Amino acid sequence: MLRFLSLCSGSSGNCYYLGTEQYAILIDSGIGGRSIRKVLKENNLLDIPIRALLITHDHTDHIRGASMVSSMMDCPVYTTKEVHEGMDHNYGLQKKVEPINRRYLTRYEPFQLPTTQFFVTPFKVLHDSYDNVGYYIEWREGEEVVRFCLVTDCGKVTEEVLKYTRQADHLVLESNHDVEMLENGSYPHYLKLRVRGEGGHLSNDECADVLKQVYHQELKHVFLCHLSADNNTPDKAFQTASRAIREKGGIVGIDGVTLVSLPRTEATLVYQLSEK
Predict the structure, then answer these.
(1) What is the per-residue pLDDT across 128-138, written as a single tens digit (0 to 9) for each?
(2) What is the CATH number of the domain that holds 213?
(3) At residue 188, what are phi and psi to the nearest 5 degrees?
(4) How far is CA 83 from CA 48, 107, 135, 165, 166, in A?
(5) Strand, coil or helix: what is 149?
(6) For residue 223, what are the domain limits?
(7) What distances in angstroms separate CA 214 from CA 104, 192, 218, 238, one per listed residue?
(8) Domain count of the chain?
(9) Residue 276 pLDDT exceeds 90
């Protein structure tokens, strides 16, 4: 059984769990190891070994707990050479990941995580960081294949983003801001430009446009991630994405796509992604 859990998703911290009854991985670690252990314990997942921590990019809200998690849970940290360099230059990360625990990825080169049935492909995502990647992950168990994709902190939708999100049956996709709320909000002009630029974040409308382009009948879960506290609401993100899915003939709910606006500072339910 493959399970997904969002521990937190927003500018205060990002961390996602993907695992079976035998092993698991984390994607990003924007909160500390003790907080992660607490959530896993509350969901009866603490005894399952974490085989890897995948990092999307070097901003603090995605790496704050990386070194602690790596040492506390005895797991290597996987990301590109550029992201590792960015983490070393991030002064908000006081303790750096130990060299022995670093693993280097190359974009677009699939690999199997050791001692797991996870097959991971990192791909380029535009953002104002040293580097930023999304992850397309296949989990294979017998004849069953689960296709999972995560894209966050995405300033512009590229053909690469569409290629990998289109393959997924379970999708974590950024829906950061409502354009009207951002334009009428309190952010200074330069920050509004940054959020809407190629180094920024996807709006609800841009997220919806992706869903219109990649929707297919096998799509089972869409998790809307990295919602802004100031320039969005969970309902606005949900309604915009829901309309996009319905426009493509999809159903949102029990008989169709499970659509969730991920909480910024709280954990979600544990979602089952596989049939068995």
Answers:
(1) 999 999 999 99
(2) 3.60.15.10
(3) -65, 160
(4) 27, 12, 14, 22, 25
(5) strand
(6) 3-272
(7) 29, 28, 11, 17
(8) 1
(9) no
